[in-house]
Design a protein that fits this description.
Strand order of the largest sheet: 1-2
Number of strands: 2
Number of helices: 11
Structural class: mainly alpha
Largest sheet: 2 strands, antiparallel
Shape: globular
């Protein structure tokens, strides 16, 4: 029979004075130095002359791209950089700014002629009532959603939002960028309404703060339904297709029929009547300096 080497089993280790146990065997260890905490050594890149087909310039570009990925301040900016590197380069813009202006003027402003689906009499009533809303109103919400001063926490929130979504956006007409906003202390951002300018990053930051207050108020009052996933923090529009997929799978498993209607509102933005919208918001309780 072949010889079998069996390892000894130590079932009763000997106690020693410090309260630990010993297996009466020599500890096996390696002499390999532990350098896991050490920083990886980056090899020096040789400065090749440009006659080597620009390899030095290409190497510098690769280094810069790698540094942007490794030092991305957030996961959102990391994947945004991955998308920039991996996606095909965008095609040149085929329309002019003047073309865009004409389109947006029609889409974002009320139509010159009232749509036939509108109730003309009710529209005039709403327009008259909305005109009666005072220019200065009083915030009656216990939480002071529309009158509480902005503080350092609001400045911290808006910086976090910019860091995740808009830090590399273009500068406004005042030549200031969101990076300039990031340099402003949070306490100074609380007085942003005093330094806004037309079409500037500061104006957009102020709009973000106003939007946050209105959203907090609407959520606290239950005005935002659970199925509202677009333009809502921590929600995603792909939640709705997921819910629809679950409904379809459930119906198929139980032999049921599901009817789905997809509604596309034509000219939704210009069809939203501003006087009626302000009147409804006022009736719901939105009043105070933020809404004035």
């Amino acid at each position: 029979m072949p010889r079998v080497n069996t390892a000894p089993v130590y079932s009763n280790p000997r106690r020693i004075s410090d309260g630990t146990t010993s297996l009466d065997v020599d500890k096996v260890s390696a002499n390999i130095p532990d350098d896991r905490a050490a920083e990886p050594v980056k090899p020096e890149r040789k400065n090749y002359p440009e006659k080597h087909r620009g390899r030095d310039r290409l190497g510098a570009i690769r280094d810069a791209n790698r540094d942007k990925l490794l030092n991305a301040p957030s996961s959102g900016l990391f994947w945004k950089e991955v998308k920039r590197l991996a996606d095909p380069k965008p095609a040149p813009i085929a329309v002019t700014a003047e073309d865009l202006r004409e389109v947006f003027e029609k889409r974002l402003n009320p139509p010159a002629r009232l749509p036939s689906a509108f109730d003309k009499i009710q529209h005039e009533i709403n327009k008259t009532l909305a005109a009666l809303i005072p220019e200065t109103t009083e915030d009656e919400t216990p939480e002071r959603f529309f009158s509480a001063e902005w503080g350092e926490d609001d400045g911290a929130w808006v910086k976090d939002h910019l860091l995740k979504h808009s830090l590399d956006s273009s500068a406004g007409e005042d030549a200031l960028t969101y990076n300039d906003v990031m340099e402003i202390p949070n306490s100074d951002l609380a007085h942003l309404y005093r330094i806004i300018a037309l079409e500037s990053c500061f104006l957009k930051v102020l709009t973000l703060l106003i939007h946050r207050r209105i959203t907090q108020w609407a959520a606290a009052r239950g005005f935002i339904p659970d199925w509202q996933n677009g333009f809502r923090e921590k929600y995603r529009t792909n939640n709705n297709p997921f819910v629809l997929r679950c409904i379809r799978d459930w119906a198929r498993a139980h032999g049921k029929t599901v009817y789905v209607a997809a509604i596309d509102a034509t000219n939704a933005f210009p069809s939203t009547d501003h006087p009626t919208l302000w009147l409804k918001l006022a009736k719901l309780g939105m009043a105070g300096p933020v809404s004035d």
